[in-house]
Amino acid sequence: MNDITEIEGARMQSQDTRIAVTSAETLKQLGLQEADLPMIQEVATRIQEGNPLSVAEFGRDVAEHTSAYADSLLDQVRNSDLDEAGTKLTQVVAVAQSLNLGALTNRRSRIPVIGPVIDRMRMGSGKFMAQFDTTRDQIEKLVSEVSQTQQNISDRNKGLEEMFSAVREEHRLLGVHIAAGKQRLVEIKGHADSLRVQIENEPARLQELSDLDALAASLDKRVGDLMALQQSAMQSLPMIRMIQANNQMLVDKFHTIREITVPAWKRQFMLSLTLNEQRNAVQLATQIDDATNDLLKRNAELLHRNSVETAKANQRLVIDVETLKAVQNTLIATVQDVIKIQQEGISQRRAAEKEIQGMRLDLQKRLSRVEDKKELH
After folding, report:
1. What Cα–Cα distance (Å) separates residue 171 from each residue in 32, 182, 231, 306?
2. Backbone angles phi, psi at 58, to 5 degrees
3. Residue 305 within any structural domain of the chain
4. Residue 114 belongs to what H/E stretch?
5. Band of pLDDT at residue 3, cut at 50, 70 and 90
6. What pLDDT was estimated at residue 344?
7. Domain match, 158 and 248 both
């Protein structure tokens, strides 16, 4: 009667635990809903107590799909199209920077007065227009080459969206298998507990109990692996979104360069060329005046500096007061140090005299005792 009661108690505990495994909170943690309960029950029936192979194969198909998507995700990261697009855009910037407009104004001849004229002859507009045409052709060719890469990246983002949906479904299926595995694990452990109660009366069922315990341990390990795979799938979702975002930013940046930056750069170059020609003309007219003004200012500054330094030198004493103070302070310090050393020497000699006198008396006393001993003998 007690055995029956214990068996019934183990069965009730198994049912309670099954309810806990499929509770709303547990389903939420696994990314599931109550609508997934029928599928959980169906998947749980795949685990057979008498078939250890059913545990080894449990969830393998879902795990294989997850691994395949992970490999595909890594291929997306390694794809050379991203590097190629970045390289082409870098070349666009390098070509644009190679046409240095600063050369029109920064590299000036140092020859007075006629220097600007030489600069204008050396840096004519025809030469820079030719350079501009070459640069423009290079940029347009690079932009054309990137167009195909841009289309490939856009198409890849569509594939990544499909991958995102598939990985999310894999996450759900893994959750179903985890919930089913936990449910069957509870049932198997409950069956094993009931066998432990009966084992005293039926020793022949000891092997059956051992098999159940081994099956429960294997299933527990399998559920743990599935939980790790589900977490990996969850981590893949934000990775896919980040890759999509990076791809889209690269596509948007290319649109900006092609449709806004490059045309604006061409317009600004023409404006810069015209403005620099005007600046050359203005500098040609003003350079002489600037040189004259600079010369007058430098002469005035030099006169002021020479006058001030001359006046200071004339008013300066032969020996500075600060020098006299420093010498006097050093002399006083020297006298004080000498006096201090002499006083210390006197003190040391007095102390030495006392010690010598003491040694003398001690020696005399000891010698007198020796003489007394000799007379006694």
Report:
1. 9, 16, 8, 87
2. -65, 120
3. no
4. none
5. very low
6. 93
7. yes
CA atoms within 13 A on the CB side of 316: 11
pLDDT digits (tens, 9 = 90+) for 174-200: 888 888 888 888 888 888 888 888 776
Token look-up 């317009």 returns 267
Asked, for residue 53, whether it belongs to a domain, the answer is yes
Is 265:96 a contact under the CB 8 Å cutoff? yes
Q: What is the spatial distance between Cα 24 and Cα 69, in angstroms, rounded to a whole number?
A: 29
**In terms of DSSP H, where are the helices of the chain?**
2-21, 24-29, 37-44, 52-56, 60-78, 80-98, 103-106, 115-122, 125-198, 206-256, 262-315, 321-376
Number of domains in the chain: 2
Distance CA 51, CA 168 (A): 31
- Give a yes or no: residue 269 inside a domain: yes
Same domain, 181 and 254: yes
Tally the C-alpha atoms within 13 A of residue 25's C-alpha that lie toward its C-beta: 2
Give the global pTM.
Answer: 0.51
**For residues 66 and 25, what is the distance between their CA atoms, to the nearest angstrom?**
25
Token pair 């990985």 is at which residue?
Answer: 167
Whether residues 209 and 273 share a domain: the answer is: yes
Q: Is 245 exposed, middle or buried (0-12, 13-18, 19+ CB in 10 A)?
A: exposed
Q: Which amino acid is at 120?
A: R
Lowest average pLDDT, out of 76-80, 265-269, 337-341, goes to 76-80
Per-residue pLDDT band at 74 (split at 50, 70, 90): low
User: What pLDDT does residue 229 have?
Assistant: 84
Asked whether residue 209 is assigned to any structural domain, the reply reads yes
C-alpha angle 227-233-238 in degrees, rounded to nearest 5: 135
Residues 158 and 31 in one domain: yes
Using the structure block, give the residue that is written with the tokens 């010369």. Answer: 295
Q: Dump pLDDT digits (tens) for 228-263.
A: 888 888 888 888 889 888 888 878 877 777 788 777
Q: Could you tell me the residue range of the domain that residue 340 belongs to?
A: 318-377
